[in-house]
Design a protein that fits this description.
Blueprint lengths: L4 H15 L11 E6 L16 E9 L4 E8 L8 E8 L3 E8 L4 E4 L3 E7 L2 H15 L3
Antiparallel strand pairs: 1-2, 1-7, 2-3, 3-5, 3-6, 4-5
């Protein structure tokens, strides 16, 4: 989707209704949810479709309202900034994605839509290691 004033206006309409979401979810590390991550600036990862959503991997729950997550992409890469893995999606069966380690960030639980699956423990360990390496000074 090309970034235009119209695109930002569409996202702002979605964001207003998303902000009113008061649903409480019991999220856990390793879970994958669809999240309304929005239309962002520059090279920040954008959501797709009418809800500006994409799957995110829950890294850590911080509070009842905030969590750390890594957005996922169907572009398959595996290096210091990406981790390629497969998981079972409830609707689509086996799905292969890459975790966008370089897009690690804090999200509000209000952005979450529906659970898509769970990453296995081995791949989650690699994602955590890559996240740690990203933020740890060398």
């Amino acid at each position: 989707m090309e970034t235009t004033n119209e695109t930002f206006d569409q996202w702002n309409r979605i964001k207003r209704t998303t902000n009113q979401n008061n649903r409480k979810l019991g999220i856990k590390p390793r879970e994958i949810y669809w999240a309304k991550i929005g239309q962002n600036i520059g090279y920040e990862q954008n959501g797709k479709g009418s809800n500006f959503a994409r799957p995110v991997l829950i890294i850590r729950k911080l509070t009842s309202e905030l969590f750390i997550a890594v957005p996922l992409t169907s572009t398959l890469k595996n290096n210091d900034y990406f981790h390629r893995f497969k998981y079972i999606n409830k609707q689509n069966g086996e799905v292969e994605n890459s975790a966008l380690i370089l897009q690690l960030r804090v999200f509000s639980i209000k952005r979450l839509m529906n659970k898509a699956g769970v990453i296995n423990k081995k791949d989650f360990h690699f994602v955590i290691k890559k996240c740690t390496n990203l933020i740890s000074p060398t």
